[in-house]
Amino acid sequence: MNKAKRQAVIAGNWKMNKTAAEAAELINELIPEVSGADCGVVICTPFTDLPVAVSKTAGTNIKVGAQNVHFEKSGAFTGEISADMLTELGVEYVVIGHSERRQYFGETDVTVNKRVTAALAAGLKVILCVGESKTEREQGITAELVALQTKIALIGVSEADLANVIIAYEPVWAIGTGLTATAEQAEDVCKGIREVIASLYSNSAAEALTIQYGGSMNAKNADELLAMPNIDGGLIGGASLKAPDFGAIVKAASK
Q1: Active-site residue, selected from the candidate residues 70, 98, 107, 187
Q2: For residue 4, with 0-12 CB atoms within 10 Å meaning exposed, 13-18 middle and 19 or more buried, which class applies?
Q3: With b meaning 16 or more CB within 10 Å and e meaning fewer, what string describes 90-123?
Q4: Triad 126, 16, 132: Cα angle to 5°
Q5: Cα(129)–Cα(149) distance, rounded to whole angstroms?
Q6: d(CA 181, CA 197)
Q7: Which domains, and CATH codes, for the chain?
Q8: Do residues 175 and 181 touch, judged by C-beta distance below 8 A?
Q9: Is there a contact between 165 and 113 (Cβ–Cβ < 8 Å)?
Q10: SS3 of 125, please?
Q11: Which 3 state secondary structure label does DSSP give 116?
Q12: Burial of 188 (0-12, 13-18, 19+ CB in 10 A)
């Protein structure tokens, strides 16, 4: 991390876990764990948990995010949620382009871009996910693939709007598998993302961009990963559902 240039942010992606009642209980446990943190703290909950999450975190240092958003403002899109619906609830962040959305629900680089621009236009902060599969890493195309995902996702995004974007590098092979990229592997890709941003915008924009690592970051490996100069936080899956573990990662990012 380089806190002199950009904020470290730890975001929890709860995925499809926790009823509203269970969410309230977990948030009660999280609040004292992350109080006073010297980094941004975000919890991204299922849609049904968002009202209770916004209510329970009011007055704390925890911000609330959604896990997806549609790119249209309204219409015949059964089961979808618009950016305006999220902002009216008091949601501040949204995860876009998560590998599970791409893998299971047919999201593409193009629809990710449409979601990014719609979210930013509505005033949401975006956590944009990019990353490669195990096969793609073995083929040696990680750098090219991640650069392509990043460039397409940011089409139409101005340098001013980029201030409301976090990019999360999440190697698909390390999500929910227990496998983790080495600190050096993660740093190499995050550094590459920053270079892409510099080529698209400017060196100052690249230096100001928060880049997270998401891929089985946990309480045990957070210190090593966050010590890397281009890793500015984490998008946390399983460990975000355990208050002590999430708290430990937040503490690591607060150093």
Answers
A1: 98
A2: exposed
A3: ebbbbbbbbbbbbeeeebebebbbbbbbbbbebe
A4: 55
A5: 9
A6: 22
A7: 9-253 (3.20.20.70)
A8: no
A9: no
A10: strand
A11: helix
A12: middle
Residue with tokens 């899956």, as numbered in its chain? 237
The active-site residue out of 33, 107, 132, 170 is 170
Alpha helices in the chain (DSSP H): 20-34, 50-57, 83-89, 99-105, 109-121, 134-138, 142-153, 159-162, 183-200, 203-208, 222-226, 243-253
Task: Answer positive or negative: Cα dihedral of 137, 139, 140, 142.
Answer: negative
Relative to beta strand 125-130, strand 165-169 is parallel
> pLDDT 10s digit of each residue in the chain, 255 long?
988 899 999 999 999 999 999 999 999 999 999 999 999 999 999 999 999 999 999 999 999 999 999 999 999 999 999 999 999 999 999 999 999 999 999 999 999 999 999 999 999 999 999 999 989 999 999 999 999 999 999 999 999 999 999 999 999 888 777 777 899 999 999 999 999 999 999 999 999 999 999 988 999 999 999 999 999 999 999 999 999 999 999 999 999
Identify whether 170 is a catalytic site residue. Answer: yes
Query: What is the pTM for the complete model shown?
Result: 0.97
Burial (CB count <10 Å: 0-12, 13-18, 19+), residue 208: middle
Asked if 197 and 205 count as a contact pair (C-beta separation under 8 A), the reply is yes
Query: What would the two tokens of residue 237 be?
Result: 């899956």
Active site residue 184: no
